Amino acid sequence: MTTPAVGGRVGAERPVAAFVLLLGAFVAVAIGVYAGVHEPAGRPFTTLGFSGMLQMKAWLTTAAAALLLVQLTTALWMWGRLPGVRRDAPSGAALLHRWSGAAAFALTLPVALHCMWALGFATDSPRVLVHGLAACLFYGAYAAKMLGLRVRGLPSWSLPVLGGIVLTTLVVVWLTSALWFFTRSGVPLT
Q: Contact, 165 vs 137, CB < 8 A?
């Protein structure tokens, strides 16, 4: 027996899911196209008190990635998938999930601004290419997830999958940028 999607009717999932995914794809492509056609400034817009643009980007991305642990833990708890913990998450878990996600997203905004405005979409090396593609996909998946929270008729599996894509792409962004930066010798970290 087929069960209806949360808040929707049987068969309504496909058009709604397609719309959400198309919006996410549009956001990802639009960011990539802008970063690709924009002439990079080659200098920081601001460093927010850090000694340089790369330091700012590495530390803000690291802080956002640290908040991913909060996101993952609260999501697993809310979905009853956190091993060794009772199934019912307290109401504060949802609030913590929302605010840690909003904070992580806000921390990525100055990073993305500098990537697009100062550096552009580069394809100099496989690392840089993977980094740029993952960053575009991160924002597309984030847009799709946020829209998915507001529309009715999505399949019940869609939000966890979109959340997993958001988490995975930000981890890839962190691995190809901040971790890479922190492992370079002779680079000032602050």
A: yes
Rg over CA atoms, the chain = 18
Burial class for 69, CB neighbours closer than 10 Å (0-12, 13-18, 19+) = exposed
Q: Which two tokens stand for residue 12?
A: 């309504």
In the numeric block, which tokens belong to residue 59?
Answer: 């530390």
Contact 107, 61 (CB under 8 A): yes
pTM for this predicted structure: 0.87
- Break the chain into its structural domains and give their ranges: 13-182
Planar angle of CA 96, 98, 99, nearest 5 degrees: 65
Q: Measure CA of the first residue to CA of the last residue in the chain; give whole Å.
A: 58
Q: Where are the beta strands (DSSP E) in 66-174?
A: none
d(CA 140, CA 145): 9
Question: How far is Cα 117 from Cα 35, in angstroms, rounded to an integer?
Answer: 7
pLDDT in tens, the chain (190 residues): 444 444 444 556 778 889 999 999 999 999 999 999 999 999 998 999 999 999 999 999 999 999 999 999 999 998 888 888 877 888 899 999 999 999 999 999 999 999 999 999 999 999 999 999 999 999 999 999 999 999 988 898 899 999 999 999 999 999 999 999 999 877 777 6
